[in-house]
């Protein structure tokens, strides 16, 4: 089995190399009335303009990997949950109001979709300037996204409960989810969570599958929280389509922009099929990990970039080898961090960063020091 995996992985690498050296054109941008299309000959990404919602991802002969039955605003998007102090939180799919081409050449495209805040929007939108960026590189089997959030001095107080990127994939194709070597499975369909096919359990997210479309899943429990993962282990997860053999992977190369530290748990993928890149969340921690801005405090933060990686296999290959390839690609992205290519000056490049080493001495409630090697 191992030798077969190595042969298939070698085949995938060979196809990628040949695709880059023989048929990979320069990156192109097509600007339409209501959409823009990034195209490098391997993957084609369509975004609404000026919203910056990912409405289509074309790859390996599939016109759209995202759920075509959903509205365009419910396919690939940045979102957040926020509230004014003492007010119930509101969910917001972030839509840009200003589109700008930041970088455009044969090797790279970087697009910006901004939503700027002013006091006329108080109470309607979170008091943040938000700049969503999307990057496509020449020869890349996928694309990157990052966001820049800014709260200016004197702006209203607010709480930010959650922010993330969400992708909703085609349920007729993506039915196998993988997030670790020992945590992967055929997933239920969304309909399996509807009345008549499931039995509600202790809370709304958990159901017992009593009449699933795939009889093999009968008697199992589905709960999106059972697919949670510690940040330190949450570097790659995603979905596999068996026909055609295609993988859709969300790769997070660094923990530096996620809240809660390495042992904080976050959601990954769940029935939909849905995949998430969560940057900030109160899950498993509550209000202690919800940042709160008071007294007009200024603040700026870069979330990401994360990488949406696509891969494919040949007819007859074991589709699970796509998971092995995704892990290899994840390791490459981790080694490449911090990236050199993001154009925003707010994303610090390697030569703008420092290092620290030594020991951190912590005095706890007992009369002992705890030494931690840094």
From TrEMBL:
GO molecular-function terms, A-Z: carbohydrate binding; catalytic activity
Pfam families: Rhamnogal_lyase
Any single biological process term in GO: carbohydrate metabolic process
Gene3D superfamilies the UniProt entry points to: 2.70.98.10
Transmembrane segments: none
InterPro entries: Gal_mutarotase_sf_dom, GH-type_carb-bd, Polysacch_Lyase_4, Rhamnogal_lyase
Name of the protein described by the UniProt record: Rhamnogalacturonan endolyase
């Amino acid at each position: 089995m191992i030798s077969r995996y190595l042969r298939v992985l070698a085949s995938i690498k060979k196809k990628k190399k040949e695709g880059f050296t023989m048929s990979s054109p320069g990156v192109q941008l097509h600007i339409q009335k209501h959409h823009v299309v990034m195209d490098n000959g391997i993957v084609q990404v369509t975004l609404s303009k000026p919203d910056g919602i990912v409405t289509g991802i074309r790859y390996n002969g599939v016109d759209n990997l995202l759920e075509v039955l959903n509205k365009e605003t419910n396919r690939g998007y940045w979102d957040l949950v926020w509230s004014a102090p003492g007010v119930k939180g509101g969910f917001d799919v972030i839509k840009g109001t200003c589109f700008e081409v930041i970088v455009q050449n044969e090797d790279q495209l970087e697009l910006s979709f901004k939503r700027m805040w002013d006091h006329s929007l108080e109470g309607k939108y979170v008091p943040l300037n938000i700049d969503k960026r999307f990057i496509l590189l020449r020869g890349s089997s996928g694309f990157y996204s990052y966001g820049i959030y800014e709260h200016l001095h004197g702006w209203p107080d607010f709480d930010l409960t959650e922010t993330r990127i969400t992708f909703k994939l085609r349920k007729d194709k993506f039915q196998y989810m993988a997030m670790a070597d020992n945590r992967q499975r055929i997933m239920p369909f969304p309909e399996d969570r509807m009345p008549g096919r499931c039995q509600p359990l202790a809370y709304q997210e958990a159901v017992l599958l009593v009449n699933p479309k795939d009889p093999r899943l009968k008697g199992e429990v589905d709960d999106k929280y059972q697919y949670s993962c510690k940040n330190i282990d949450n570097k790659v997860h995603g979905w596999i389509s068996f026909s055609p053999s295609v993988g859709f992977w969300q790769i997070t190369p660094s923990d530096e922009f996620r809240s809660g530290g390495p042992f904080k748990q976050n959601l990954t993928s769940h029935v939909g099929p849905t995949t998430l890149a969560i940057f900030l969340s109160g899950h498993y921690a509550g209000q202690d990990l919800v940042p709160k801005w008071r007294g007009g405090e200024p603040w700026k933060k870069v979330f990401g970039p994360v990488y949406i990686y696509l891969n494919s296999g040949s007819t007859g290959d074991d589709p699970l080898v796509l998971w092995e390839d995704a892990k290899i690609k994840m390791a490459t992205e981790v080694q490449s961090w911090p990236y050199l290519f993001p154009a925003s000056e707010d994303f610090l490049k390697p030569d703008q960063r420092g290092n620290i080493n030594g020991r951190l001495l912590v005095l706890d409630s007992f009369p002992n020091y705890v030494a931690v090697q840094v």
